[in-house]
Input
Amino acid sequence: MLKISTVSLEEINNTVHIPDPNASFLRKLWAFSGPGALVAVGYMDPGNWITSIQGGALYSYLLLSVILISSLIAMLLQAMCVKIGVVTGMDLAQATKSMVGRKVAFCLWISTELAIIATEISEVIGSAVALNLLFDIPLLIGVLLTVFDVVILLILMRFGFRKIEAIVFCLIATIFIIFTYEVLRASPALGDIINGFIPRTDIFTASIKGHDSALVIALGIVGATVMPHNLYLHSSIVQTRKYDRKNRTSLKDAIKYATIDSNIQLSFSFIINCLLLILGAALFYGNNPDDLGRFTQLYDALKDPNMVGPVASSIMATLFAVALLASGQNATITGTLTGQIVMEGFINLSIPLWARRMISRGLAVTPVILCIYIWGDKENIVENLLIYTQVFLSIALPISMVPLILVTSNKKIMKEFVNSKLTIILGWIATIALVVLNLQLIYEVIASLY
Output
């Protein structure tokens, strides 16, 4: 059995009460619900929005099947994260360090920290653009304002982890309600939506001259599905519940209910990503895709009857910006927690939360500020950074996925909770497929630059 000297996220580990073993299914599920919401945030960050909407605008409902398959892979991998946390008492960073040693762990920490910063850059850009759309705040000022969300997070931490989970879920619900409303207003073709969930060979062959092919957009959707930081985050925060760490039945229940929570929350992110693509197909399919490549263009299009027809209104556009802001703020919480997890897990270094928050946010806003300073206060400049952050996340992905499969498939470590043969096969297929697709995405992005 692997050994660790400290528990993951010590200040919140084993702090959330759960009902006694004889409680009802719903009471137990409610007690374990919450960590899945923080994980689901990573599957609907601002970096995914334009890809999904453009996928619908260019190829109608064709790529819905890609979102479905990607979400199923995500559920499989996050279920493994639950097992690592519950069974071993470690997070993924601690488990990885125990296998590779101190020197390699330090290198892995550097790459993972860069991946977290890349994720936060996406959140900074999304929040700054949303503030610009809603309140006409210049992008530079919006970027600087995101630094001060550290105060909000520190206040939330004082009220307990359960409150943070509730706030994140409310933000997810806000995004869900907004896009459900907008899709209903758009009146999409139900039959075409259903057919879109059936995988078709057109995904590999469909193309429009002068624009990304269906395959390239599909690669973007798949490549952005599993974020490296989510795997570290989930393996840690699942341990916030007060289950009996030495009781087999208690561990079994913890895995069961935490996995159900994860699948429910990831289903929300799956629906939201589908809604984004459906919105793009219902409102923008057949229009000029060059008019829909930026957040501001999408915002303006939702107000333009010539683009989206009679459903166009300032309310539709404002709700879109509100959802973008909610999506950006969600990543604030998860980015901070994950940064602490990997720092303590890989190099056993613990610093005050406020310092961790200021350092990570400072590193995230610096490249955005430099872009604005050098090339001007232009949205297209900062949004180009989104492309590069997604590419870096693709590079960092195998570092987290491979140890995840290895640990949960090791019977000496997991004992009776080891992955089944089917799970191991599916896990490696998903891992290899995602790595190959991410490499292809990196190639496509680099090729487009030249």
Summary: The first helix runs from residue 25 to 32. DSSP finds 21 helices and no strands in the chain. The two ends are 50 Å apart (CA to CA).
